[in-house]
Design a protein that fits this description.
Order of helices and strands: HHHEEHHH
Strand content: 5-15%
Number of domains: 2
CATH class of the largest domain: Mainly Alpha
Helix content: 55-70%
Length: 127
């Protein structure tokens, strides 16, 4: 299922945490947010429910406690977030993103090989 709407930075933090800690509870996420952002358990609960409503999270009741999981893996989640960012913020243009990467991001040899491979895929699709 494709999520219904974009998400903010705080919601992305929650999603990344849950992707790294499958079947997380509100209490676990709340504890993480309290340590890293000074936010409350109630904030975690509200964000998790919004993410569930948007289709980014699923929940299952296990022994009386809701456990939340991301229906897509972390890689798919991040790809979706980038797609949403490019569509909503950059109006579908990847040029500003590429310009940012060339100016502000150091790329390892391995990442450079991956990027070249992706560029080759784009060129083949456009041929």
């Amino acid at each position: 299922m494709r999520p219904k709407s974009t998400i903010g930075r705080a919601e992305m933090e929650v999603l990344r945490y849950i992707a790294d800690h499958p079947a997380a509870t509100v209490g676990e996420v709340g504890e993480h947010l309290a340590k890293t952002k000074g936010q409350t358990r109630n904030t975690a609960s509200n964000m998790m429910e919004r993410l569930r409503t948007k289709g980014y999270l699923e929940r299952e009741r296990v022994e009386g406690i809701y456990r939340y999981t991301a229906p897509m893996g972390k890689v798919s989640l991040l790809k979706q977030a980038v797609e949403d960012f490019v569509d909503s913020t950059l109006g579908g243009s990847v040029s500003p993103l590429i310009a940012y990467l060339t100016e502000h991001v150091e790329v390892s040899e391995e990442q450079l090989v991956q990027l070249k491979s992706l560029l080759n895929e784009i060129e083949e699709k456009n041929s």
